[in-house]
Amino acid sequence: MQIKSTLGLVVCCSLLLGGCGTDDTTDSVADAVAETVTDTVETEVEEVVDNIVVVDPSVFALNSLESIEIVDCTLSNGDASTCYSVTVNGFPADRNELGPFCPESIETTADDAGKWFDGGVLYDLTGSFVSNLSVFYGDSKWQLYDKDTGLVNITDTQVACEAAARPNVAAEYNNFCVQCEISYYSDVAGEGVSSTYLIPVTPVLRDSPADISSDNVGVAFNGVNLAVAAPTQAILSAYTIAAFDDCVGHVNPVAGYHYHGANHGDGTCPAIDYESDGHGGAFAYAMDGFAIYSMLNQSGEEDTDLDECRGHSDDSRGYHYHAAGAGENTFIGCFAGEIAQ
Amino acid sequence: MMNPHFKLLTMAVVLLTLTSTCLSAFAHEEHVFKAPWDACADAIKTQQCAYTNAHGDLFKGTCRVFNEALMCVRNQPIITAEKVTPADVAEVTVSSHHDSHENH
Ligand SMILES: [Zn+2]
Ligand SMILES: [Zn+2]
Q1: Of A138, A302, A329, the CB nearest to B36
Q2: Which of A36, A74, A102, A334 falls between 20 and 30 A from B18, CA-CA?
Q3: pTM > 0.90: yes or no
Q4: Hey, where are the domains in chain B?
Q5: Is residue A35's pLDDT more than 80?
Q6: Residue A118 CA to chain centroid, in angstroms?
Q7: What gap in Å lies between CA A73 and CA A63, rounded to an integer?
Q8: Which residues pair with B62 in a beta bridge?
Q9: What's A110's DSSP letter?
Q10: In this structure, are residues A212 and A335 in contact, taking their beta carbons and an 8 Å threshold?
Q11: Considering every ligand atom, which ligand is closest to the CA of A257?
């Protein structure tokens, strides 16, 4: 990651928080942010000590942040530590709208449709992909569209999307393309579902990696949740497709808008910059405080020395992860570091 | 003591069986969506695994747990279909076979 001036964060966060109210609590949060950032600058965020780079709070997009402060926390090894408590509004800071997700009809092309993944591949969820599902999955029960009109069955109400998105889908919602709107869960346009992440200020490597047993793998710098693997077997067994947009994200009632893969620079999904040395660009922090970078470097190659968590180390970035492919239903394989309890 | 030739033959048959089982599982496209999970169905955590996608590209990695289910997480560059050799598949098969015995 590049070193960034954090002065802007101090000012903007103060303004942002000041706009929410003028009570003492808000002021103290704003002060804490200022203090947090000043401390970070003093400790030089890019220094690599024992393979560890401390978390840089300035990488979070300001318009995704509700607050960021340093708090006491206990790590998974039982040690007392300090963590960033990062509260985001859940809407991607680098976009104005979500979607498209499901194709409207079997004529819909990739420009107006989202994505679906399977067996490691990210597919355009076009009308023709939907009309071919019975062949694709070798099961004639797939019929996601009206044979007469060619219109795709889309969950177009909150009731329908929630009914089709839960584990045991009622038969009436079989053969639906599932699409939940963020407006069902957020009253404010341009905001999503607010979430708070506790991320160790200084990551601590574990002796052996930890399983990803929580729902959160991490949080993107644009404020979006990185979710654990989508249960594609359950989704498909109900003859539903939980459509993603081009960023491999979709909406559910609990997490709001969240990612199941990293797919930058494709369709409506903004690209991220490579590092100045051609290394992939960072786009998120995992819950253990190690940064997650794009899968490929600027030459389109993938590293050959990734460990089972999909992490490795170098002199300038210390230990860090590289995201899996956009269609692989995961970002990383495990947590190499301690997470906050 | 086992005849060395017989031993070699047995190993070859085991290898071939494992490899062909693996390859035939890959060939059933209707089960592609289960591939990353199926690749770890009889495995234990940290065991090596591999699966192919619908294009025949080979994904090699490690079985890791996500919400209590084992899934194959790739940590080696994807081997595209035209470059996949039987040796690539055998290497993973033998390795996981060996590991599973070591850990039980
Ligand atoms: Zn999801
Ligand atoms: Zn790297």
Answers
A1: A329
A2: A334
A3: no
A4: 4-98
A5: no
A6: 19
A7: 26
A8: B48, B73
A9: G
A10: yes
A11: 1
